[in-house]
Design brief:
- The protein is α/β, with parallel strands linked by helices and 319 residues long.
- It has a domain at 9-136: Rossmann fold.
- The protein is built from twelve helices and seven strands.
- It has helices at residues 9-18, 33-38, 67-77, 94-107, 124-145, 151-174, 182-189, 197-208, 232-239, 265-274, 286-300, 314-318, and strands at 22-26, 41-45, 86-91, 113-117, 219-225, 242-249, 304-308.
- A four-stranded parallel beta sheet has the order 2-1-3-4, with helices on both faces.
- The longest helix has 24 residues, at 151-174.
Amino acid sequence: MTQPVIPTRTETISRWKERGGKIAAVLPIHYPRALLRAFGFLPVEVWGPPGVDASHAAAHLQPYVCSIVGNALSFLLSGGLGVADVLVVPHACDSLQGLGSILLDFIRPQQPVFPLYLPRGRRESDLVFLAEECRALYQGLAEISGQMPTDDVLMDCIRREEEADRLLADLHRSRRRLPLGDLAFYRLVRAREYLPAETFADLARAVLEGPSVSPRDGIPILLSGIVPEPMALLDALSKMGGVIVADDLACCGRRLYPPGESREPFRRMAERILNGPPDPTRGSPIRERLEHLVWMARETGARGIVFYDVKFCEPELFD
């Protein structure tokens, strides 16, 4: 099968820095990409990473904190995030909220740390709250950068991200006709975690406009969870005869954000996040989650759902 050429995180960061850009290391899960880009920061997400010596974080975290947070802190303490100019910590769960507090009050890394508080609902008050959180992040970035992007600049960045997310959704809908195995597909869609929106959009268009294939044989399954790490999981499922036809992963399917509607940039950024698929880290009711999973299974013909949970992940275990 044809494999698209995808720049690595390291290559992407180096090229961005060479052009005078700055890097924002972003913890999971939901955050306003467009806002960071408006200030010249490339968001590069930190989902762990796996394979890190977790002992560096042991003095700061309880042993029952999830591996994503533990590995991220270990990666930071071992110098792995030295290339970042700012750190953004969305409060997706208690563990990430605790990490934000540790970084702000105790460890105090060399980079500025910006927490982002996410509401747990979709009411008007939640939308207003998240819009104000985006505005507070804007003020913080303005203070350290000396820049104040206009509403027009913000809207241009928002529309660029919306186009990239539209193409991301097209990839998900078209996955069965694409000449990509499950591992190659997820390497492609997860490149959205670090590629500039315009680079990802070009890559996605090239794949979508390329040749189609007949759907692969196998047992159609839906994959749910936080993140498919290690990625070897995908090959293991394929070897057992499974074919992933849809996902409900926090790093992928739960971030298929629709376009916003408001002409006010901060509200529009908030709309996009809150109008995404149901997610326990945003406080979505279990009934909404169940209905969404059943709908996806029916739409895609999935014969079963594989729940792949990160150890000690409270939002997933309580869901």
